[in-house]
Structures are given as structure tokens and as C-alpha cells.
Queue: 2 jobs
Job 1
Amino acid sequence: MDWWIWVVIGLAVLAAVASSVVAVQARRRSGDVIAGGTRPRGGRKGRQT
Amino acid sequence: MSTYLRAREIREEPVVTLAGEDIAQVKDIVFDPMRGTLTCFTLSGRGLLAGPLKRALLWKKVHALGPDAVMVRDGKALEEDDQAARESIDAPGGGHVIGARMMTEDGTVLGTITDVIIETGKAPQVIGYEVVSTAQTGRTLFLPVIKPSSVSEEMVVVPACTADFSAGDVVGLPAAAEGLRRRLEQET
């Protein structure tokens, strides 16, 4: 194979790795809204009032 | 003066010191579901490749919560670890409320929660939820939340009269919350 084909393949692999790293980091950074729980007291379960 | 922010507007806000240093970014917003008060934030690092930080920011260490940044006095405001946040998140009950269903005590599903509305001020608190209505297919409603019966990952159960106090936008939510508060006071 010609040398430039290896260059193209190498660049494609690098781009795929870089984009997946950025996507994983973006997912890890995106947050949520969390209703905090409570430790069970006296065997009572859940958050009933 | 109170302003009303959607939780999605606070998520990913920078955490900035009064000296102007950008030290972190908000990841999760943790609140007490029964009182509605904000408990703490979990954090991410700043920068494209930064991941979650293993440090929490407790609400009592926040100087101000604004529409564009969470202000803290200095870097010492961040906890050395995220144990305080983990204790609240990992404890039984509660859970991620975005995507949970909102149901009344008489068994009517009001819709699916798509965002949480927070009243800012000295003691910011969750005053209601943005809900995609089940009855009015796909319509977005704003429902006040006072004294929920229970909050879990799957469902937020609220008093039956909550359905009578919906608002069409965030601006109408405080009036709806006041109406619901009065109704609940009358009923008790």
C-alpha cells in the first residue's frame, strides 16, 4: 500500500479516539438533580411522611 | 429579591471565588426533597478534558447563587472530599428526579418531570417542577411542590390538590405555589 493510505488511516484512528474521549468526558461532567435520601431510622424504610 | 432558575441553568455553572478564580463547575444539584432546600453540589473540573471532582460544595459554604455562576469566598469553600454529598445521594430514598413521574395521592399521573425550578435568595429552595403533562399530551406545565408525600427515583407523590395549581410558565409558578400553600393550610 501507498504510504499516504497509512497516514489517512492513522489520522482517522486519532480522530476517533479523540472524539470518544471528549464524548466520555462530556457525559461524566453532565449532572443531574438529585433528591437526597435519608438514612433509615428504627427500621423504617423509604421517605414517607 | 427572589429569582427563579431552572436546574438546567445551574448545572454546569462555574464555581467562582470572590477573587475571580474559576475553580470548578457544578455537576449535580442535591436537595432535601421534603423541605425543598438545596443541600450541596457535586462538582466537575474546569476544562474540556476535566472529569468529575471528588469534592463537594455544601450549600452553607456558598456565598451567592446567580444565573451565571455560583460564588464562593475562596477555594477553601470546597470540601476536601465528596463524602457529604455521597452520604445524601447514596442513602435510601430519593434519587434523580428528572424523568420521574409526578403522581397525586389519589393516583393520577400528572406527567413526567423535565426540570426543577429553584427560587434563589438567601435560602434557595425547590418550589416546583416543570412537567410534560400526560393528560394534555406533550404540554409543558409548571407545578408547585409543597409537602410531597414521597420522592423516589421513579415517582414524586404530591397532595391531590396540586393538580389545581398549575402554571403555564415559570413566572406564574410563585402564585400557583402560594395558592397551593393556602389550600393545604385550609385542609389541615
Job 2
Amino acid sequence: MSGNAKTEAIRAESIVKRFGSVLALNGVSIRVERGETLGILGDNGAGKSTLIKILTGFHQPDSGQVFVNGTPVTLNSVDHARSLGIECVYQDLALVNTLSVYHNMFLNRELRKPFLGLLDHAEMRRQAAAALDDIGVGVPSVRAEVARLSGGQRQAIAVARAVHTNARILLLDEPLAAMGAREAGLIIDLIDRLRSRGDIAIAMIAHNYAQTLDICDRVVLVQHGEITFESHSTETSVEELLEVVRREYRAARRA
Amino acid sequence: MSTNSGRAGGAQAAAPAAAGLRGLRHAVSGFLVWREASVILVAVLLILYFELTNANFLTNANIVTVSQFVAAPAIIACGEIMLLICKEIDLSAGQTFALAPFLVYFGAKFGLPVIPAILVALLICASIGLSIGLITVLLDVPSFVTTLGAFFLITGITLTISRGFPATPPGGHVLAGILGAFGYSEIIWAFLIVFGTHVLLRHTRWGLHTSATGGNELAAAEAGINVKRIKVGNFILVAVLAGFTGIIEAYRVGSNDPLAGGANMMFFGVASGVIGGTALTGGSGTIIGGLIGAIVLGVLQDGFTLQGINAFLFDGIIGAAILIAMIVNIRLALWQRGTVR
């Protein structure tokens, strides 16, 4: 699992998606490699979420093709995408607040004892603690109720769970929204560590240009259902991104 | 950020000199992190109060009486707690409670031996729970409304088939004794069912998925849990437990009463759960807490009866006592979590 041999994890070619008369995606192509983090920027309603939902199998494209590990696939459901190692982590939907950290980590994949099939709490605690340690997520105790943890810790646990259950293509829907600097730092560190493992491809929707350029290897800008800008993070700047957005905004106003 | 994940409360004090004191402190703090701690404290205080003010409180005869106050709400609470945890409620449990002994009675009258008649009655209760559950989850009717409808519907059925008259439960002395007529049999059933439901909630996937469903239905469904199945299953559980309680209560009293149970029984079950720490908002609850909640309610009823409280004032005193006991309980629980302000 070396990080230097970059290979394609997921690719979407010329994706078109309509909802009635609304053209949500008009021929969008993206590609994320193993060990790479892609930032997807854009206004509300630009089509970012539709794109992510096509990659998770929630929506099916009207035309275009998705490739996983270079093989063309038709993602017909969320479960199907998950079975191929594609997992989306949503900020609010991910965890059950009233359950402990380790119960959340093993939700619906519980470990059981041979005796009557009762839950093996001790083994789940041990494995959950090991999995969290492994990717460097610190929590006071795996027994703690998730409700008592901070937003950043919750998000980190949701990501850790996805990785623990073999997700190799991680889609993060606004992982840094509504987080203070310290909390955001927690997630940024986690994303960095996952990237350095080299075997996980990450695509994240984000709003903060500076943060995104900082975290991601590459960024794409989605506007009115098309990718209008694409660059390596080191080769662009917040100013350039803003200029692209400003140009589009002026054009839209004139029209 | 500390990273000593999941090793809380493991160490044991070993130095012989300070071991005793440290052991005690360990036990006390261990007790206080236990969720049911505050309600246990309230129950103990109430028992002490009634024992100190009344010579007959902790006598065998009175303990039997208290146990009979406690048993039925404790069993109903087991079912209601499971439902409350997955964010539903069954208002009709007290009605199923009244119907079930008549189902046994008519089963026996149609020639079934008593035990098969009981099993058939419980099967019918299960189908009531199934219908309530399906209407709730498939038609998206809030369970408060579904079970309010069922509340009146089942009363109507019980009154119609009984024609409003009581009946004598069928079967010999031994069976009647095992089911409820022997002084302690009802509370023994209650303990068995509490134990079983506790294991169900804490040590099986069903219980964990019930908590997940009530805690965050979307997240549970996202993880692949069939939340509708969980809810329907728990509606069936409540109905069967309520029916069974109605049957053993009928054997204890020696008569089927078409007006037994009702809203009172259901509210005692729900109240036992809530007093024991089950949240009305779903996602968390404890069966053991429900049992202790039922003990608190039973002790209050029995204790004030022994003290010869004026019959007209009785409900008022019970109400005030429940309020005071619960204020103490909630303040204790907040203090124990260190969130008191």
C-alpha cells in the first residue's frame, strides 16, 4: 500500500442528470486516485450534492459512466456502492447520539458471542479502541455516549467507522461545516493521516476555499451543473478561485 | 485530547492499608455512575421512611402485598420501555390486559385445555400488537393515535364478548397457583420477564437496534437496520406482555374483570419506565430502572394505605409523593452526572 504509485480509485465520465426540466449535471467528469484528496467546491444548487449522490449509488445518472478501480460499474443502490468500498459520511445522519462510541462503530455489524448469539461487548470495545487508535482519533472512552462528544469527534468517529468497515473511497459531505477552528483541525489532521496511508481516495464537498486548498491535493469548481475550473491545489489560489466565481456571477447577472 | 480509550473503571486498588477506604470510595463512585442509582436511592429512602413510621411495613404479609402492587406495572413497563426507546408508545396495553383473560376463558369454554387456551390468547394479543404496529409504521399514523383508537376498540371487544360480566378463570389450583394465586408467583413472573427483557435490550442485536432506531432513525436506517420491523416487533412484545399480565392478574384475583387494567395500568407501566430513567424522547432507557420505578410506585401506594390516609385524599397524596420523589430523582441524576448548576 505505498502512496507513490497513484492509481485511479473512482472516475465519473460525462455524467448527465436531470430532475424533470432541471439539468442538475451537464456532462461532469471527475477522477480521484488512491491516496488523493479531491475538494469539490461550488455554490448551493450547483450540483455538488447530486454528483456525490451519483457516486454513492443514491441517484442513477441519465447518461455517462462511473468506473471503480478502472472497471465500468452501474451503481444501482447505496448498498451496491458500499459493497464496492464507496462510503459517504454525512455530518448529521451518521451516528446515533444515545449510543456509545463502540456501539456506533459496530452498528448493524455487531460482534456476537457463540452463546445464544449475545453481543460481545468486550470484543467490540477492544476492536473499536484499536481502530480509533489506528487512525489517531482520540476519544475519552469508547463507552462514552456519542452525545457527549464534540462535533469534530463525532465526525471523526463516523469517518473511522467507514474506514474500519473497509471503505476505500470516502465521500465527505461538508465535513468542516459548522465547526470551530480546533474542531476543524481534528478532522483536517484525520484526513491528512488517511491520505498518507495511500490506499484511500477521498472526495469532499466544501465551502471554505482556503481550508480546501490547504487540505486537498486537487480542487474542482462546480457551477450550474458543469465543472468550470480544475487545478492542483499548489497551482492555484483563493484569489484565482474567487475570480472564476466572480466572472460567472457577473455573466449570470447580465443574462 | 486523551487517548486512553475504553479503559475506564478497570483498575482495582491493591495496597492493603488504604484498600478498605479506597474500596468503599470505588464502590460509591461505581454505584453513582450506574444509571439506575438515583432511583434506587429514592426507593430505599421511601422504604426506610415507611418502615420507620409503620411497624407492619416490612412484614411478610405486607411484602406480598407490595409485590402484588409492583408485579403488573413492572411487566407492562418492560414492553412500554422497549417501545419508548424506539420512540413509540402503546396506550392500549391496559385494554389488552383486560381482554386476554376473557380470551383464555372462551378458549377453555370452546374445549381447549387451559395451557393451549392461554397460548392462543397470547397469539391473539400478538396479532393485536402486529396490527397496531403495521398501521403505525406502514400508514405513518403516530402510535399515540393508533393506540388511542385501539384503546377504545379493545374495550369494546372485551365488553361485548364478556357482556360486561366478570368470569372465573379456568383451570385447577396448581395451575392457578403457578400463574398468580400463590402470593409470590406474580412477582416471580415479573422478575423473570424483567431479566429476560433486560438481556434482550442490553445483550442482543434486537435491543441495540431498538435503541438505535429511537436515537436516530435515519442513521439506523442508513446502517441497514430495518427500523419498521424493529418497531412492529416491539408493539407485538408490549401486547403479549400486557395480555400475559392480565392473565396472571386474573388468576391472582380469581376473577376476570372486564374493566380491569385500563388507562391506570398502562400509565403505571409507562410511569414506572419514566421514573426509572427511560427518556420519553426515545433512544435510551433501562429495564432494571423500570422495575425500580414500579417498586417506588408500589411502595408509595402500599405505604400510604398502611398509614390509613383518607380515601378521598389518597390519589392527591400519591400524586404529590410521585412529584416529590421524581424531583429528588432527577436532581440526584443531574448531580451524579456532574451537570448540576
